[in-house]
Structures are given as structure tokens and as C-alpha cells.
């Protein structure tokens, strides 16, 4: 089973097209992520990340919905 989670791009570290990387925040945990597959994504945008690669851009509403679902799973509370 594969899992991809949303994160918010904080800044771009390398803008070269095939080496594009940036700092992405996952609820306060920051990681350097490859952004080559989402050239349209900019700081402030949300992306879905799998295995260190951003694979698509999503809107803030969808990102919040996913965060809420993950929070429900952590507490075993009904959602």
C-alpha cells in the first residue's frame, strides 16, 4: 500500500527544472522535497508528496480535508 500526504511548500531551494527542490512543511515537520513533477507549484501551495517527490498540486481546502481525516485516525474518534 502506498501513502501520499499533503504538505505546504515554504520555499524553493533549487529552481533548475530537473533538480527543482523545496522545503515542504507537514504540520510543522519540514523536509526537502523534489518538486520537478510540479513545475507550476510555488511557495504557499499545497502538494501531495510520496517518497520524497511532490506528485501533484492540490488546493488548500482539499489539503485541510486530508489533515482532518488523518487527525481522526490518530484519535480513533468518529469523523
Given the C-alpha coordinates, what overall shape results? elongated
Residue fraction in strands: 35-45%
Q: Can you tell me the number of structural domains?
A: 1
Rounded mean pLDDT is 92
What's the number of helices?
1
- CATH architecture level-2 label: Roll
User: Could you describe the largest sheet, including whether it forms a barrel?
Assistant: 5 strands, antiparallel
Sheet with the most strands: spatial strand order: 3-2-1-4-5
Family: Belongs to the HupF/HypC family.
Protein name: Hydrogenase expression/formation protein HypC
GO molecular function: carbon dioxide binding; iron ion binding
Pfam family, one: HupF_HypC
Quick recap:
This protein is α+β, with helices and mostly antiparallel strands and 79 residues long.
Write the topology of this structure.
Layout: E1 5-14, E2 21-26, E3 29-34, E4 46-50, E5 53-58, H1 60-75
Question: How is this structure best described in words?
Answer:
One of its GO terms (biological process) is protein maturation. It comes from Neptunomonas antarctica. It holds the Pfam family HupF_HypC. InterPro entries: Hydgase_assmbl_chp_CS, Hydrogenase_HupF/HypC. This is Hydrogenase expression/formation protein HypC. This protein has 79 residues and is α+β, with helices and mostly antiparallel strands. The chain has a single domain, classed as SH3 type barrels (Roll), CATH 2.30.30.140. Helix content is 20%, strand content 42%. The chain contains one helix and five strands. A five-stranded antiparallel β-sheet has the order 3-2-1-4-5, with helices on one face. Strand 1 and strand 2 form a beta hairpin. The longest helix is centred in the C-terminal third of the chain and has 16 residues. It starts with a strand and ends with a helix. 18% of the residues are buried.
Amino acid at each position: 500500500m502506498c501513502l501520499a500526504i499533503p504538505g505546504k511548500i515554504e520555499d524553493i531551494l533549487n529552481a533548475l527544472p530537473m533538480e527543482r527542490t523545496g522545503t515542504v512543511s507537514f504540520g510543522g515537520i519540514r523536509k526537502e522535497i523534489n518538486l520537478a513533477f510540479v513545475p507550476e507549484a510555488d511557495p504557499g501551495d499545497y502538494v501531495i508528496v510520496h517518497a520524497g517527490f511532490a506528485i501533484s498540486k492540490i488546493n488548500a481546502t482539499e489539503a485541510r480535508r486530508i489533515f482532518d481525516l488523518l487527525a481522526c485516525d490518530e484519535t480513533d474518534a468518529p469523523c
